[in-house]
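Need tokens for this chain, all 191 residues.
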Amino acid sequence: MGDKNDGAANSENRSRLAKISEYAVPRGSVPFGLTVTGNNTLWYTAAAGNVIVSLDSTTGTLKPREVPARRSGLSGMAADSQGNVWAAATETGQLLKADSKTGSVTEYVPPSADAGPFAVAVDAKRNVVWFSEIEADRIGRFDPGTGVFVEFPHLEPDSLIRRLEVDRSRPNRVWWADARRNTIGFIEVLE
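Here are the structure tokens for all 191 residues:
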């Protein structure tokens, strides 16, 4: 039987193998979505602050990007192959792009009204953006190169897809996690 201090000693040894860093963000920001792009840059959505923020992890410098619509309900985000950041604006029903070079934020509106975009994932090989629509029970795909949206109905009504992930070995396959129905699954586009 082990000494009851063994757990504390093991925890101390593990902490010696990890470096933990924290960065203060403005009070009331409510950071939600996260993604990492090149040059030590982390991006997050500030749900309450209604901004998309970049953080230089070397200097700790924060740069907020104003979102055009008020009370957007910012949630999930992901980066594309060009370093642009895509975020879901659940309350305003929009998909947002923060341009990595100019810092400007552009709004895109999916075909379904008040769709409630929430989770975002990017197929970096084809540079298409996938997103869940929690109010419309759909999964959307947006091609920024052509400006075309495609929406795929979810199998079951009243889904709550809070997480999407593009399958790295099969880019036409996108995995989802449905928190409300306690299921996971995928959609595969046969093109």
